[in-house]
Amino acid sequence: MLSLFRKPSPAPGSCGRAALFRALAFAGLAVPASAQTDANFHGWLQYFGSHGLGRSKAAAHLEAQVRRHDLVRSWQNVLLRPAIQWRLHPRFDVTAGYGFISHHRYGDYPIRRAWNEHRIFQDARLHHEAGAVRLLHRFRFENRWLENRQFENRFRYMARATVPLRGPYYLALWNEIFAPVKPEKFPATFDQNRASVALGKRLSDHVRVEAGYMLQTVWQRNGRVREDNHTLVFSISSTLPFFTGR
Questions:
Q1: What is the SS3 string spanning the chain?
Q2: What is the pLDDT of residue 245?
């Protein structure tokens, strides 16, 4: 992705970083040749809040997502994710919290029945710049309680680039891979990959909105089906503090 941005001359090591980024972006595309492909069309509405708690370095992270199948006709998922975030450095923060996710039947190869998942998760996020482009790396580790009390761990890595446009507008590009942590048994190396492009607008110093397209690739646990979920995404993000210190 970084290779898309024009530069007068690459900095030492930049070619290697660009190659790594491209590898991560497409790492999840490998799938057994015998897999069936299930194409779906979804619509996601998302809220992300990071609300300051006075003069403390801590913030309350509040997240809610409504995910619909066939754009709006039926359910895909509902997600609630409250957490506490600590800013350890202007460019680095960590987060720990809980996630509730309801999984519903959809598509040509649906799950057997709807079920609810509970998660504990830990994040580490690193921010930096490459010229005018703002880059974010998020590393997430999830402890997941699945159907029938099955327990699994999963690692996620997201890379995001924010490119400023004219005025309050910007372009956001990101990719995230999801990898089950061994010794969990899973038919593929990755169980999910998300690639997205969105147009964003800053409404104020604390509120921004984004609308865009995401390709969510999901490898089902049976090892025979790969979902290609074409998704329209609308997001609202807020950093309004709950209260300010004196």
A1: CHHHCCCCCCCCCHHHHHHHHHHHHHHHHCCCCCCEEEEEEEEEEEEEEEEEECCCCEEEEEEEEEEEECCCCEEEEEEECCEEEEEEECCEEEEEEEEEEEECCCCCCCCCCCEEEEEEEEEEEEEEEECCEEEEEEEEEEEEECHHHCEEEEEEEEEEEEEECCCCEEEEEEEEEEEECCCCCCCCCCCEEEEEEEEEEECCCCEEEEEEEEEEEEECCCCCEEEEEEEEEEEEEECCCCECCC
A2: 67
- Residue 147 covered by a domain: yes
- Give me the chain's average pLDDT, please: 88
Structure tokens at 154: 């999963």
- Look at the alpha carbons of 199, 63, 158, 26 in this order and tell me if their dihedral is positive or negative: negative
Domain, as residue range, for 178: 16-27+36-197+211-238
Task: State the pLDDT at residue 28.
Answer: 46
Distance CA(75)–CA(104), nearest Å, equals 6
- pLDDT at res. 13: 44
Give the pLDDT confidence of 162-208 residue by residue, as tens digits: 999 999 999 999 999 999 997 667 777 889 999 999 999 999 999 99
pTM: 0.85
* Residue for token pair 């801590």: 58
Q: Is residue 10 part of a domain?
A: no
Give domain status of residue 8, yes or no: no
Predicted confidence at residue 27, as pLDDT, reads 47
